[in-house]
Amino acid sequence: MIRIEGLEKSFGRNKVLRGVDLEIKEGETLTIMGGSGTGKSVLIKHMVGLLTPDKGRIWVDDVEITNLGEEELQKVQRRFGYLFQGAALFDSQTVGENIGFGIKHLRPDLVPRLKEVVAEKLELVGLKPEIADLKPSELSGGMKKRVGLARAIAYEPDYILYDEPTTGLDPIMSDVINDLILGVQKKLGVTSVVVTHDMNSAYKISNRMAMLYQGKVVSIGTPDEIRNTTNPLVKQFVTGSSQGPIQMQVRTFE
Predict the structure, then answer these.
(1) Strand pairing of 29-33 and 191-196?
(2) CA 90 to chain centre
(3) Please, what sign has the CA dihedral across residues 191, 74, 150, 176?
(4) How does the average pLDDT of the chain come out, rounded?
(5) CB neighbours of 108 closer than 8 A, spacing ≥ 6?
(6) ∠ Cα 144 145 146 (to 5°)
(7) In the predicted model, what is the mean pLDDT of residues 138-156?
(8) What residues make up the domain containing 48?
(9) 64 lies in some domain
(10) What is the tally of structural domains in the chain?
(11) Distance spanning both ends of the chain, measured CA to CA
């Protein structure tokens, strides 16, 4: 379980999070949705301790992480896998070395069977073990996402954070990634938090969905509850309408 209370974060004069309250239940997939620049990625970076809040508290299970020292925080961080928006693979390393990176640093007990673990994780995300010797530059966008997911699950975390997992992919490959997220949750029993503005993806993979708007969670519910919401903010976002309470800044050029 992850519990967040009163989370606030500013960057200079830009106040991104303005008092976020949220609870992620054990074993669920919770999707955080919202427009660009609403603080979705900032929020999940706080969950894993990559950012420190200006105000508020965060618990991972029974451990409050907001004021932990570096050594204790690293113990909590070992329980998280993170799929970055652009996969964030190391260009100078092979696929196998990328997947093994977290194992070497977080699970030294798995190092003796490193090649076997790499092969297992590649197969779990639908890739052939033979690609372990390739460099990221030799992979398609969809393959990079899958390798990034293999790296995120390689050291067997309890939590996986997905930052825009389908961004930049065509509709078919996006659905492949959705199926992988569902498969990983089912096979590994992990708790997942997904940041996305892809509503097709959110409806398919989520147990619950939360909407972030102006630095706060304004609605949370099951996919059916979100789809049938009467909340005007949520309704405008999920239907993709330009008409409604969410104001968009549009520049016109003459």
Answers:
(1) parallel
(2) 19
(3) positive
(4) 88
(5) none
(6) 90
(7) 88
(8) 1-27+35-76+195-254
(9) yes
(10) 1
(11) 52
- CATH, residue 244: 3.40.50.300
The pLDDT tens digits for 200-247 are: 999 999 999 999 998 999 999 999 999 999 888 888 888 876 777 776
For the record, the structure tokens of 59 come out as 């618990």
Do the Cβ atoms of 80 and 48 come closer than 8 Å?
yes
Q: Which amino acid, 4?
A: I
Instruction: Give the whole-angstrom CA distance, residue 245 versus residue 116.
Output: 53
Element (H, E) at 42: helix 40-47
- The radius of gyration computed from the CA coordinates of the chain, to the nearest angstrom, equals 19
Residues 6+ apart with CB under 8 A from 171: 200
Enter the tokens of residue 134: 């390739």
d(CA 137, CA 141): 10
H or E stretch at 115: helix 114-124
CA dist 253 and 96 (Å) reads: 49
Cβ 227 vs Cβ 235: under 8 Å: no
